[in-house]
Write a structure and sequence with these properties.
The chain is mostly helical. The protein contains 13 helices and no strands. It is globular and about 90 Å long. One of its GO terms (molecular function) is DNA-binding transcription factor activity.
């Protein structure tokens, strides 16, 4: 056995797992971690994550901010516990689906609906792997869905992350549209039509030929869901990969993680100046192309009038 002591759990994680020490003094039955988190989630659901502060939560519960710190000692811990509470456990219904693909699709849909119910979850940054009970349960559900496949543990985690990432991106988009509908009073259909009209005004075939073609095809007024299309194509890729395993083909070499540019490079004065010059040149090029397109249109109109 190793003599190395395991790292101590940060208090927020310890609270999530129910292994943190209870406060030794302060309000007794009137206050609890659960009540604090519940009040904070209610604030976030009503007014967004920006409305959540220790003072606001304390006021909602009728206590002083200092009394909260005896239970939750930091704002970051509160956000972690809020995320855990709002995330909840994955729905049991996905287990009833036939096959890994249907199970993962059910988890994808459930996670997306979670973001619709609690859009503020998307404002909490991802700072590491899931290490709280409910977040771990979602990952475990995805991995369990893949147990009958020949994928190894690394592949299963990669597929689970692809599903989670797709659901998060889908959630960002639909939560954004929902917020726009609330703030403007427009219906989702009205927002779609309004955006299509804006696209139609500024996107030209000369500057953005492929995008203009999509507009002309009515893509941005379509009822088809591109995100469900996308996740199904991800599943197609996984199925194709599983087929290569079944055929005994060698596993492709794994890619390395992308890493940030070293600070000594990104912060170098000459590098910053050069990149600024590139941005200036790109803007000048865009402006020049705009002038060129206008000149071509004007020339065509003059030629047409002379005919």
């Amino acid at each position: 056995m190793s003599d190395i002591e395991p790292p101590e759990l940060p208090r927020g994680i310890a609270l999530a797992w129910g292994v943190a020490a209870n406060p030794q003094r302060g309000p007794k039955r009137e206050m609890s971690v659960e009540k604090i988190v519940e009040a904070a989630v209610e604030l976030a659901d009503a007014d967004g994550i920006g409305a959540v502060s220790m003072a606001a939560v304390a006021a909602r519960l009728g206590f002083t901010p200092m009394s909260l710190y005896r239970y939750v000692s930091a704002k970051d811990d509160l956000l972690l516990l809020m995320q855990e509470e709002a995330t909840g456990l994955p729905p049991e219904e996905h287990r009833q689906e036939e096959g890994w693909r249907a199970k993962l699709r059910a988890l994808f849909d459930a996670q997306t609906r979670l973001y619709l119910a609690h859009p503020w979850l998307l404002s909490i940054p991802i700072t590491g792997s899931p290490i709280t009970p409910n977040s771990s349960a979602w990952l475990d559900a995805a991995l369990t869905s893949l147990e009958a496949t020949p994928l190894d543990a690394t592949d299963r985690v990669a597929v689970a992350l692809a599903v989670t990432g797709s659901a998060r991106w889908y959630g960002i988009v639909i939560a954004g549209y929902a917020e726009q509908a609330r703030s403007t009073g427009m219906s989702p259909d009205q927002i779609t039509v309004h955006e299509a009209e804006l696209f139609d005004r500024v996107i030209t075939a000369e500057e953005f030929p492929a995008l203009r073609g999509a507009i002309e095809a009515g893509v941005f007024l379509s009822d088809d869901d591109p995100f469900h299309f996308g996740i199904e194509r991800v599943f197609d890729g996984v199925e194709a990969y599983i087929a290569t395993i079944d055929r005994g083909e060698p596993k492709p070499e794994a890619d390395s993680w992308l890493v940030s540019e070293p600070a000594e490079v990104a912060e170098d004065k000459k590098v910053r100046e050069a990149r600024k010059a590139v941005r200036v040149a790109e803007k000048a090029l865009r402006d020049a192309r705009k002038l060129e397109r206008q000149a071509v249109r004007d020339a065509r109109e003059r030629a047409a009038r002379r005919q």
